[in-house]
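Researcher: Good morning. I'm working through a list of sequences from a screen, and I'd like to move beyond sequence-only analysis. For each chain I'm collecting a predicted structure so we can compare shapes side by side. This is the next one on the list. No need for commentary yet; just the structure.
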Amino acid sequence: MSNGRVINLSQSVNYTFIQLTLVSILWGGTFIAGRYIQPEISPLLSATIRFILASAALILVLSCKNIGWKKVSLKQFMQVAILGLSGVFVYQVLFFYGLQIIPASRAALLVAINPAMIALISFLIWREKISISKSIGIILCVFGAFILLSDKTSGIEGFMTNTGDLLF
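Model: Good morning. Structure tokens for this chain:
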């Protein structure tokens, strides 16, 4: 019981799986949709529209959920704005430019290896600790990506041969 209510664990687990499935569908759909609209709309405009729509959706969710708005200082607001513009908006611009050059399936694979690359770079630059299981996961991820992203040539020269690969 929580606050006098009975919580049905199986319903909350099912609801969580439904939410995760919807997130996967929406996330995966962005690659296909992005590739589809590229001939019609410039990458910069695509990123701007996506950024504005996502911001509006976030404001709507915060307003409807009665979570409340937290008071932030001007300094905090500027920090979040800079992070949003550099980490989200610039990523979206490069994402849409990359989709002009490479197929959506290849783009999805490149984006999927981002967490492993971030962990690896964090280890190399900031000496963040990586557990044995994470190390194995990173090695498998990089090896799998190497196999899938390589052309059917022998040697390293076939890996990531497309300019669009570097934008992701």
